[in-house]
Amino acid sequence: MNTVADPLRASAATALPAADDFPILARPVHGRRLAYLDNGATTQKPNAVIEAEARFYRESNANIHRGVHWLSQHATELYDAARVTVQRFIGAARADEIVFTRGTTEAINLVANTWGRKTLKAGDEILITTLEHHSNIVPWQMLCEQTGAVLKVAPVNDAGEVEQDGFDALLGERTRLVAITHVSNALGTVNPVARMVERAHAVGAVVLVDGAQAVAHQAVDVQALGCDFYVFSGHKLYGPTGIGALYGRARLLAEMPPWHGGGDMIRTVSFERSTYAEAPQRFEAGTPNIAGAVGLAAAIDYVQGLGMDTIVAHEHALLEHATAALTAIPGLRMVGTAADKIGILSFVIEHIHPHDLGTILDSEGVAIRAGHHCAMPLMTRFGIPGTARASLAVYNNETDIAALVAAIEKAQTLFGTRPKR
Amino acid sequence: MNTMDGNLRELYQEVIFDHNRQPRNFHDMPEADRHADGHNPLCGDQLTVYLRVKDDMIEDVSFVGHGCAISTASASLMTEAVKGKTVAEVEALFKDFHALLTDIPPERDFGKLAVLTGVREFPARVKCATLAWHTLHNALIGEHTPAQTE
Fold first, then answer.
1. What is the pLDDT of residues B69-106, one digit of tens each?
2. A11 has a pLDDT exceeding 80
3. What's the domain count of chain B?
4. How many CA atoms, within 13 angstroms, populate the side-chain half-sphere of residue A45?
5. pLDDT tens sequence across A211-232
6. Assessment of whether the complete model's pTM goes beyond 0.90
7. pLDDT of A135-154, one tens digit each?
8. What CATH number should be reported for the domain holding residue B70?
9. Which site among A33, A353, A380 would you substitute to test the B interface, given the most B Cβ atoms closer than 10 Å to its Cβ?
């Protein structure tokens, strides 16, 4: 997708009629029109998703992979079809390379506790980047404590881009795993994942990509990226909370021991010994989030119905517009100015702490995130305790950005720090 | 002016801005006989409270750190409020101040601390206003793990 700035695209930013599909956007907050700009935390849900999950409970609910009765078979078909929808959405070669999880965090922990504990030895190295969310740091730190492996961290430059020379320099024959985010949740930076995967594979490392902030905002093809694991959450993709997916190469999943034990992940059980099912069932112990998987498939259908090219064009045009509008505010400094970024605007404002700003914006119906965005080491890198973050989605438009700008100016007026334009 | 605007002005009173811009007793204290750290992991606010206690009385108190306007102003106002009080008086004041923000406010004169009453309408910000107090409490009881809030 060509994402070069094009003023004509600005019209695309208001063209997408998606807001009508999201009932929550019609509810006022503190008596104001809601400008929901906290999509990096979670996206709102379109009617199609809300209805799909409700319809499942109204018409199709039963446990899967168990009953011989009709409803159970019907629910199983829906669940299996959702897996195929996810497979196609991220370009996986096979449906059994998709494991349903509670979300990104659980998917990363699954890889750490199965592939990681089986593979890593003392002195082995895991390479991550300074951009990572805590969920792509802490599971690896825990794995290092358990195995004696060592965590290495690739640096970022002042724009918030991973320094590729620094990344390459940290790759070596001891590197077993490279775990990198596709898109930074705090800054919006898009990592050159295909390039990083290629370098990592050159030293024989396995690569996990955290796609939590990517899948809703750009086309993802795991085979084109070349990664070995790809993880994401449904709720940042207009889907329900509590459902997400792990993509793993069939060869790797086949070698991985189970993590959670229980029903549905076994082949045979006796008190002497149990044998385990093949992937993906081996990693889906217990009754899964069936309605969630159905809702996630509906979310993917919704996104594909809008068209990923349309979404990318809309959000990119709005990002350009919002960046220009925010940088025109005196006393505002953008944090994260990568050449390649998606719709996340992180910023600090002179003399106003992000939390105070968040409260004042909220009073105007503008919902943003304030704080460290679960990326404390990244904030430390930039020498700030946190930022205010506005993150875009398909339903946002220039009215939301105007509300954001007006609310920031109100905060500056209230704090008596509004500089002369 | 709608309710929310009114609430916002109650929260951000001039006294809060004043104490945020120029926090009182904002320095470290090499001669302190007690100190404790406070940290709000969810928002990243961090501070250290220093104390000099003599004959069960707060002889001197100071703080350093960084946080939002509410947390900085609350810490500053706290240092003014507790200086010269006995340890028991300070603990009782903390209990009453906490109730002022979260519960049925007790009948008492809160002095300047009353400007923080507006926090009641912003449950997400209570932790900002109480961090310094939790930290002070930890310093008084000699607790060395960093204080957190509700």
1. 999 999 999 999 999 999 999 999 999 999 999 998 88
2. no
3. 1
4. 19
5. 999 999 999 999 999 999 999 9
6. yes
7. 999 999 999 999 999 999 99
8. 3.90.1010.10
9. A353
Report pLDDT digits (tens) over A281-303: 999 999 999 999 999 999 999 99
Averaged pLDDT for residues A170-198: 98
Residue B43 in domain: yes
Q: CA Rg, chain B, in Å?
A: 15
Please report whether residue B147 resides in a domain. Answer: no
Question: Do A353 and B44 lie within an 8 Å CB cutoff?
Answer: no
Which domains are seen in chain A, by residue range? 7-31+307-414 (3.90.1150.10), 49-304 (3.40.640.10)
Nearest to A160 by CA among A373, A346, A4, A316: A346
Contact pairs from chain A to chain B, CB under 8 Å: 54
Q: What is the pLDDT of residues A341-352, one digit of tens each?
A: 999 999 999 999
Q: Does B2 touch chain A (CB under 8 A)?
A: yes
Residue B130 domain boundaries:
3-141
Q: Do A356 and B12 touch (CB under 8 A)?
A: yes
Catalytic residue among A374, A375, A407, A411: A374
pLDDT of residue A100: 98
Answer yes or no: is pLDDT of A15 > 70: no
Region of residue A383 (left: phi > 0; alpha: psi -120 to 50; beta: else): left
Residues of B in contact with A360 (CB under 8 A): 8, 12
A152 - beta bridge partners? Answer: A127
Decide if A374 is catalytic: yes
Q: Which residues of A touch B70 (CB under 8 A)?
A: 355-356
Residue in B5, B44, B128 closest to A363 by CB: B5
Contact A55, A245 (CB under 8 A): no
Nearest to A385 among B8, B44, B128 (CB): B44
CA of A416 vs chain B CAs: smallest distance (Å): 9
Mean pLDDT of A360-368: 97
Predicted local distance difference test score (pLDDT) of residue A9: 44
Q: How would you class A302 by CB atoms within 10 Å of its CB: exposed for 0-12, middle for 13-18, buried for 19 or more?
A: buried
Angle formed at CA A153 by CA A148 and CA A156, multiple of 5 degrees? 175
**CA separation for the pair A391, A368 (Å, rounded):** 8
Interface with chain A: mutation pick from B68, B116, B127, B131, highest number of A CBs within 10 Å: B68
**8-state DSSP, A226:** T
Q: Searching chain B, which residue's CA lies closest to the CA of residue A357? A: B68
| Inter-chain CB proximity A31 and B70 less than 8 Å | no
In chain A, which residues touch B (CB < 8 A)? 30-32, 352-356, 359-360, 363, 370-372, 376, 379, 385-386, 414-416
